[in-house]
Amino acid sequence: LLYTIKFEHKAVRGMDWGGAAISNATWTGPKLCHVLEHLGWTEEDNPSVRHVWVDGVDYGPDGSPYGASILIEKAVDPRQDVILALKMNGEVLPRDHGYPVRLVAPGVVGARNVKWVGNITLSEEESHSHWQRRDYKGFNPSIDWHNVDFDDKYAVSIQNQPVTSMVCDPLNGGSVTVSDGKIHLKGYAYSGAGAKVIRVDVTLDDGVTWQTAELIQDDSPLNRAWSWTLWECDAVLPDGMKTGDQVKVTCCAIDANYNRQPEKVKNIWNLRGCLSNSWHSISVNLN
Fold first, then answer.
1. How confident is residue 8, by pLDDT bands cut at 50, 70 and 90?
2. Which of 69, 220, 268, 273 can bridge 225 by disulfide, Cβ–Cβ 3.0-4.6 Å?
3. pTM as predicted
């Protein structure tokens, strides 16, 4: 789950991850749907079940475990690739990543990918965990801590990550070498629910003109893309810009549903900073 503290608009309560709360790994383990099938459970015989609760064996100060839930449609569809991970990058799952078993629900935000799994429950309602019902929800920008209601029927628990992207190289405030009137840029893009990133646009003049980046990604289908997409762009400098100047670099990703990142954070701001997927911009010096 990507979220950041947007001090330039309005502070939020949360960890200041910036754009760094993302990584990519190879996970190995049985599909959850096959485990349920092995145990004799079928959706046809249990039509009232709508959610799969997963509780870890890590407990908070109140004595309750970390827990979350995902939708049954996600859990029982073999094409959704929900697994009980036993290995990470070909090796036994490290302790910090959930040994001995971790839920990996690709396309779903990290808060639902429970580590150190101790219990799985099939239920008609979503998990009662604090992290499912009292956190990781989105609200309109006028809701703050003085008037928030986590039980509001329109405050749905976050499941899928909206499309997002980031400029990673060069770093904000750093320098970049001009070559033949161009600068070389790198970054990543990602969208939840398996929606593949189909394009990343880059602008050096605050959206007046755009250039299309080259995508580095696997050959997964448009609706089953669980991995991030890396991108690179040899961006042409605007007319009149020269060595010694400072340039603002902005990227914007588009996914297979043609969802596009919003321009400004002010219209999607929420009190926890979740789902902050507005255009990402940096300023760099031209060498």
1. low
2. 220
3. 0.92
